[in-house]
């Protein structure tokens, strides 16, 4: 049986846990080999083992704010598996605080990880793909980039920026066979979101018409769609995966 990513090679930043690992699991199940970038070495090792070992997965310590480290991540995919067909720019952090209390350092760090990190990954991947017949890039935005969430001036700004980056970059490389699309998840059940105070969680749940949080696997399914030929005539788009929140 032919799988959707049979013989493809994918790089996933923030790939050792949460949504990134769920995407890696789905990609491997669909025939891909994956290279995971993450800062957590122990989590990387565990993820590679869980995915089936080094025949199908490689872990690389990568700080996405460094263009050199992101380039090394892309180079590792080519060295290990001979190609780069899919890039998923997923790495992210939060440093939530009201604007009055947020430090300049926490603003800069969140923007650097999300926005510059996505630019680094998009730039490095597109440079390779345009010379090798094309590819698909998937960038992770957020519903926070659409509506702006309290205490997230840094995160909302970065996630909105990713949408603009995705659209502008998509126009530059579409004629070269490189497609670039973005996903905007809503409330997804991960270790990061489950650490929220109960009252915050409940207030967010009340905004969701489907009445539940999403699962990482549900983001992975959309990433698979955008990474595969199922979305062959799509580029520069933003797909909301929110259970109907903030329509």
UniProtKB/TrEMBL annotation:
Q: Name one GO molecular function term.
A: 3-oxoacyl-[acyl-carrier-protein] reductase (NADPH) activity
Q: What's the Enzyme Commission number for this chain?
A: 1.1.1.100
Task: Respond yes or no to whether keyword Oxidoreductase is given for this record.
Answer: yes
Superkingdom of the organism of origin: Bacteria
Top-rank EC class of the record's enzyme: oxidoreductase
Coiled-coil residue spans:
none
Q: Which InterPro entries match?
A: KR_dom, NAD(P)-bd_dom_sf, Sc_DH/Rdtase_CS, SDR_fam
Similarity remark? Belongs to the short-chain dehydrogenases/reductases (SDR) family.
The answer to whether the entry has keyword Oxidoreductase is yes
**PANTHER family to which the protein is assigned, alphabetical:** 3-OXOACYL-[ACYL-CARRIER-PROTEIN] REDUCTASE, CHLOROPLASTIC (PTHR42760:SF40), SHORT-CHAIN DEHYDROGENASES/REDUCTASES FAMILY MEMBER (PTHR42760)
Per the UniProt entry, what species is this protein from, by scientific name? Gordonia phosphorivorans
Give UniProt keywords alphabetically.
Oxidoreductase
Q: Ketoreductase domain spans which residues?
A: 8-186
Full protein name: 3-oxoacyl-ACP reductase FabG
Pfam families hit by this protein: adh_short_C2
């Amino acid at each position: 049986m032919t799988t959707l990513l049979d013989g493809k090679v994918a790089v996933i930043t923030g790939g050792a846990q949460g949504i990134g690992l769920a995407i890696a699991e789905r990609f491997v199940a669909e025939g891909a080999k994956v290279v995971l970038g993450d800062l957590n070495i122990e989590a990387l090792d565990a993820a590679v083992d869980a995915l089936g070992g080094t025949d199908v997965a490689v872990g690389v310590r990568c700080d996405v704010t460094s263009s050199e480290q992101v380039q090394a991540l892309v180079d590792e995919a080519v060295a290990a598996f001979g190609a780069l067909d899919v890039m998923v720019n997923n790495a992210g952090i939060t440093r939530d605080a009201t604007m009055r209390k947020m430090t300049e350092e926490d603003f800069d760090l969140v923007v650097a990880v999300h926005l510059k990190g996505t630019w680094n990954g998009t730039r490095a991947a597109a440079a390779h793909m345009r010379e090798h017949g094309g590819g698909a890039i998937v960038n992770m935005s957020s519903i926070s980039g659409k509506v702006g969430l309290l205490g997230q001036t840094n995160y909302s700004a970065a996630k909105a920026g990713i949408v603009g980056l995705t659209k502008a970059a998509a126009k530059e490389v579409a004629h070269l066979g490189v497609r670039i699309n973005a996903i905007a998840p809503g409330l997804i059940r991960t270790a990061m979101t489950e650490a929220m105070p109960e009252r915050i969680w409940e207030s967010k749940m009340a905004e969701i018409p489907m009445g539940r949080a999403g699962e990482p696997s549900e983001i992975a399914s959309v990433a698979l769609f955008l990474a595969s030929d199922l979305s062959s005539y799509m580029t520069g788009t933003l797909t909301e995966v929110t259970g109907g929140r903030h329509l």
